[in-house]
Amino acid sequence: MKILILLAVMLFTFSACRKKELIDTDSYQYMTFTFDDPKCSNGVLDSLETFVDCGGPCAPCVNIEVPCETTRNAQVVKYNNTTVGNYSFSDAQVTSTLNANGSYKVVLVSGNDKLTFTLGGKIFNKSSMIAESTSDYLVDGNSEKYHVSYFKDQQTMTSYNGRDCYVNYKDGKFSIDFCVLPFTTEIYLKGNITFSI
Asked: Is the pLDDT of residue 30 over 70?
């Protein structure tokens, strides 16, 4: 009797740890069993994953839907809600570097203008991220925040409001989308920067 109970417990445990899939091949039906990879839920970026617990052998990574329409590697400059400039740029105009504190710096240079994003290191350990604006010194390898500065007409401006910035990964590249990136009460940017790290 003890042996039967032990066998029943082992069978129940074995069946609880697997997924069943019924496959119909011609007139024969048979069961296949697949086992969940425990690394796909361990909260760590493992070697074959694209981001933490997604991509590679795990479920596909899901991107955040950006609530405004942007064009790849393009930005719109608005002044008092009026468009005063539309700019597009190439991948070659965007550089990214890893800072000593674990954050990443993404720089777009267009003519005499320079737009710099400092992104917290934890942004890159997720499949997608709605980042939060903060002071530059608070952005490091353990941060999910960002800081932006905009150099235009010999003047440096800093994004002053914690509006959302959407960081996604698709087609082998990262993208930053921003719908309202304010630098003064009158000037704000909308756009996309696509880059590799």
From this structure: no
Beta bridge partners of 128: 168
How far is the C-alpha of 45 from the C-alpha of 48, rounded, in Å? Answer: 8
Amino acid at 152: K
What is the C-alpha to C-alpha distance for residues 128 and 106, in angstroms, rounded to an integer? 17
Looking at residue 3, what is its pLDDT?
Answer: 62
Average pLDDT over residues 131-146: 82
Torsion 166-178-197-141 (CA) sign: negative
What is the overall mean pLDDT for the chain? 78
Cβ-defined contacts of 32-41 (< 8 Å, 24+) = none
Q: What are phi and psi of 184, to 5 degrees?
A: -140, 180
Structure tokens, 137:
């010194």
Q: Which two tokens stand for residue 43?
A: 């909260």
CB 146 within 8 A of CB 120: yes
105-123 average pLDDT score: 89
Q: Tell me the Ramachandran region of residue 186: left when phi exceeds 0, alpha when psi lies from -120 to 50, beta otherwise.
A: alpha
- What is the pTM (predicted TM-score) of this model? 0.69
Structure tokens given for 54: 């997604």
Contact by Cβ (8 Å): 162, 151: no
